[in-house]
Amino acid sequence: MATVDTAAPNAAPAHTGGHYTTTGLDNRKIAIWAFIGSECMLFTSLISTYLIYKGRSLVGPFPHEQWTDPATGKVFPAILDIPVTSASTFVLLMSSLAMVLAHDAVVNADNPNRKSWQSSKLWLGMTALLGAVFLGFQAYEFTSFVHEGLTIRTNLFGSSFFTLTGFHGAHVTAGVIWLLSLLAIDFKRGLTPRDELAVDMAALYWHFVDVVWIVIFTLVYLIQ
Amino acid sequence: MAHEPRNTATGHAPDAHHHPHHPSAGTYVKVGLLLTVITIIEVYAYYVPAWVAHWSFVPSLLIMSAVKFLIVVSVYMHLKYDHRLFRALFVGPFVVAALTLIGLMFLFGHLSIRLGLLA
Question: Do B35 and A93 touch (CB under 8 A)?
Answer without folding.
Answer: yes
